Amino acid sequence: MMDLDFSQVNWDEVNKSTIDTLNMLGASGFFTLLLGLPLGVVLFLTSRSSHAILQTVYAILSVIVNILRSVPFIILIVALIPLTRLLVGTSIGVIGTIPPLVIGAAPFFARLVETSLREVDRGVIEAAQSMGASTSQIIFRVLLREALPGLVAALTITIVTLVSYTAMSGMIGGGGLGALAINYGYYRYNLPVMIVAVALMVVIVQVLQMVGDRLVRHYTRK
Question: Are 160 and 208 in contact (CB under 8 A)?
């Protein structure tokens, strides 16, 4: 049995990698919310419309979302290297990982947003319409408020998924715990480093899920 000597673990490197992972999660989660929420609302609104142009818009957006969701992230991040360099000037490290993370996660989150909005009681929407509410008022005062628990759950699922995406980004020069596990744990056969990196990612996922579940319970009407 292999002897696990954790004294060989460079804890300064572990701390740096953990901070890098949290930075990637924070930045990519913010931009995923910023892009994915409006996209999900547009998908929901256009899917309900009987107007031919809006139906065409929905069909086009739906195809784009499905394509981006279908491409494995490890392939997507390689395919986006030219775009990533154009946007942030590099395709490696923490900064170079954020654009692919957002492009990979935003369509996934948008589809979850669309699903959450579909679960809003149509009677509530029709009541708002009958009182003369505008489209923007229905979106912000009815749809998003009524769907808030589902939206929080969707965001939690998306951010947890981003944790695995950050780990995969380590295969092609991304930073964080994924890069630590691959560069030190796998390539240098340092099993203790691999165990520490995986354990920290598990802890991050558990904390995110616990916070998300608590927020969902808080916003769910009893």
Answer: yes
Residue located via tokens 């899917």: 47
Q: Residue 172: what pLDDT?
A: 81
pTM (2 d.p.):
0.90
The rounded distance, in Å, linking the Cα atoms of 68 and 108 is 8
Residue 218 neighbours by CB distance under 10 Å: 10
Least confident of 36-40, 175-179, 182-186: 182-186
Mean pLDDT of the chain: 89
Q: Quick check: 143 and 127 in contact, CB under 8 A?
A: no
Give rounded-to-5 percent helix, strand, coil for the chain.
85, 0, 15
Residue 87 C-alpha from the chain's centroid = 19
Residues 47-51: contacts with CB under 8 Å, at least 24 apart: 47/114
| Short-list 178, 156, 152, CA closest to 167 | 178
Q: How far apart are CA 153 and CA 172, in angstroms?
A: 30
Q: What is the pLDDT of residue 16?
A: 93
Contacts of 153 (CB under 8 A, 6+ apart): 116, 212, 216
What tokens were used for 44? 């929901």
The mean pLDDT of 31-55, rounded to a whole number, is: 90
